[in-house]
Design goal:
The protein is α/β, with parallel strands linked by helices. The protein is built from 6 helices and 9 strands. Helix 1 crosses helix 3. The longest helix is centred in the first third of the chain and has 15 residues. It binds 1-O-pyrophosphono-5-O-phosphono-alpha-D-ribofuranose and adenine. The site of 1-O-pyrophosphono-5-O-phosphono-alpha-D-ribofuranose has 15 residues, from strand 7 and helix 5.
């Protein structure tokens, strides 16, 4: 049986070849969430990493970043802020456009989501090109946040996203790399 929590998460992620299109291997985290021991192992990796770090707030990226980000915020006794896809947030927002593999997308944040100087953990499930995480971090920084770390379950290093984020001055942490 597996006892190392990182290995347990790595071995529980399901690989779907050629989805959503030929040539892409989709890294499906739903089995990690479904298995109570694995879900707890995953969250505990993050909790132990940040429980002695000065953090004021957790921000999670729509949609899979909400699942892990909100649980982590709760466990760290912090508030949670959603970074949403365009058109979902009802109050005044800031917006950042970014490139996907095909076309453009946009993320938004409420203008009162945080106060300048607050220390924020930015959470998503996966870093591919890094475009989503970079756009989200720009939103946080435009509001004056200090982004402590960009946090993901999975990094796909061949796509260069984590390198690009580090080049922009962000700290990056991922549980497993494929
Ligand atoms: C996926 C994933 C990340 C992003 C990573 O989200 O959850 O947010 O892609 O890709 P990138 O590093 O190249 O930006 P997706 O846009 O598929 O949306 P979803 O979470 O709503 O499924
Ligand atoms: N988002 C972007 N690329 C992905 C992949 N290969 N698996 C899961 N989510 C993704």
């Amino acid at each position: 049986t597996i006892t190392d929590p990182r290995k347990r998460v790595l071995n529980t992620i399901r690989n779907i070849p050629d989805w959503p299109e030929p040539g892409v291997t989709f890294r499906d985290i739903t089995p990690v969430l479904q298995d109570p021991v694995c879900f707890r192992s995953l969250i505990d990796i993050f909790v132990y990493r940040y429980m002695r770090t000065r953090v004021d707030l957790v921000a999670g990226v729509d949609a899979r970043g909400f699942i892990v980000g909100s649980v982590l915020a709760y466990e760290l006794n912090l508030g949670f802020v959603p970074v949403r896809k365009k058109g979902k947030l009802p109050f005044d927002t800031l917006i950042e456009d970014y490139e996907l593999e095909y076309g453009m997308s946009s993320v938004e944040i409420h203008t009162d989501a945080l106060r300048p100087g607050q220390r924020v953990l930015l959470v998503d499930d996966l870093i591919a090109t890094g475009g989503t995480m970079l756009a989200a971090s720009r939103l946080l920084q435009r509001l004056g946040a200090n982004v402590v770390e960009a946090v993901a379950i999975v990094d796909l290093p061949d796509l260069g996203g984590s390198k690009a984020l580090e080049k922009e001055g962000l700290n990056v942490f991922s549980v497993c790399q494929f």
